[in-house]
Amino acid sequence: MTDVSKHDSIAAEGAVYYLFGATGDLARRKLFPALFSLYKEGKLAEDFAVVGLARRPRTNEQFRADLLESIGEFCRYKADDSQQWERFASHFVYMSLDINNVDGFRELARLTADLDVKFDIPGNRLFYLALAPELFGPVSFNLRDGGMLESKGWNRLVIEKPFGYDLESARKLNAQLSQVFKEEEIYRIDHYLGKEMVQNIQVLRFANAFFEPLWNNKHIANVQITLSETVGVEERGGYYDKSGALRDMVQNHMMQMLAMIAMEPPSRLHPEDLRDEKVKALRSLRPFASSEEVKANVIRGQYAGGELNGKPLSGYREEDSVNPQSETETYFAARVHLDNFRWAGVPFYIRTGKRLPVKTTEVVVEFKNVPDNILFAHRHDLAPNLLVIRVNPMEGIYIKINAKKPGVDNVVQPVSMEFCQSCMIGINTPEAYERLLHDAGRGESTYFTRWDEVAEAWAFVDRIAEAWRGNSPALELYPAGSWGPARVEQLLAEDGFHWWPVNGQAEDNVIWISGGPK
């Protein structure tokens, strides 16, 4: 297990990377570009090979042509050095594989032995399963039975979300994987943990003396986490209609971001210590004890027809592959609490949805205001101080404070100071999959989810799903292009708060310093 303080430029160890689902969308949009970026930056040395695996027949030449097309369309680097490209592409081979046929895995083992010799690879194996979760177990068994795990090097299994569809299915899946791989060999990807500013949360909290002492219920009034998308379900209608926002976004992305914000400082900068603290935070989540509590604290919505920027948008039930009577939620908002000494009494408001006005992911930490009867507070309507962590698409933070307006009138006004992380690198900001593939190749597990994290998140989410099944609240429709059902504002108003404007929405009467909205 590596220390997270090790420098990011360390090259991944030489290994054979097996991409199951190599003809799929994830490989084309994310994995191939990530591998090329790592190679371009020297984080992937020459002692590697990539085996693309899928059912459809392809030649190596066709596979490499697909690879070049993928990089041309989606990679932040261009394949403009022909010699470098030829060296990179020579490491890629394709094999048609029926994942239910163990003989195919034995053939794959023979191919691997040739690749080890050709590229001087020390027997290390990284299996990336870009497949449906019900296939993780069968593939793992065939990797074992086909002799793929008998090399002298390490074996690592990288799997995509969703990890099951509820706690019960996740447990069954984990039991299958545990028959073949040790927990420390399993890397469960949540790509949000690879995002620059999600990883920066720990640095902001634990490396700055003026944040951590205030990071508690004595000074923080509430925390707001927003993950909004402007797109609808697009071509994922069939999958999404069986999943919904609760399983697709809340169980993984939202729970992970909440844990990063709420966790206690780890005793060491070590992957297991960091993940221990995230598990403790998830265990502190107050479970909803009844369907009435769910109704009072959770909002489930679905987008109806609407418009955005003058463009008409269809409703969810009119999308391709969606049941015209579907009750699947495309919007989720909730008020949750953590019952521990740090956060007792502080509401965390989380919301996520499709067909919202702005694409953004950000965390707003609202601090308690100064007492009403002292100094400036009794003469001015002071705004609370805010710390805003912007994860996507703009990366950075801004802090809102109160300051005197220039002049002789002694007027106090809010002032926002901004740090733009993405402005430092621009379009060459590394993608989340680059970081995570690089980490998996180095055995760095910090930003992968451990089984007990997954189980705690499912346990919390399953209570909500169960309440919806037993006494399902009315699905609240909202116009596509809006910020969700009307009751979302009421959820915060009940506690005396409101949603703060998110990235892309300039605040009124705020003076910006260094790069804010004009």
From TrEMBL:
Keywords: Carbohydrate metabolism, Glucose metabolism, NADP, Oxidoreductase
Active-site residues annotated for this sequence: 253
GO molecular function: glucose-6-phosphate dehydrogenase activity
Residues binding substrate, per UniProt: 191, 195, 229, 248, 354, 359
Domain named Glucose-6-phosphate dehydrogenase NAD-binding: residues: 19-200
Domain Glucose-6-phosphate dehydrogenase C-terminal per the UniProt entry, residue ranges: 203-500
Reaction catalysis annotation: D-glucose 6-phosphate + NADP(+) = 6-phospho-D-glucono-1,5-lactone + NADPH + H(+)
Binding site for NADP(+): 21-28, 55, 98-99, 161
Biochemical pathway: Carbohydrate degradation; pentose phosphate pathway; D-ribulose 5-phosphate from D-glucose 6-phosphate (oxidative stage): step 1/3
Enzyme nomenclature, EC number: 1.1.1.49
One Pfam assignment: G6PD_C
Family affiliation: Belongs to the glucose-6-phosphate dehydrogenase family.
Function: Catalyzes the oxidation of glucose 6-phosphate to 6-phosphogluconolactone.
Name assigned to this protein: Glucose-6-phosphate 1-dehydrogenase
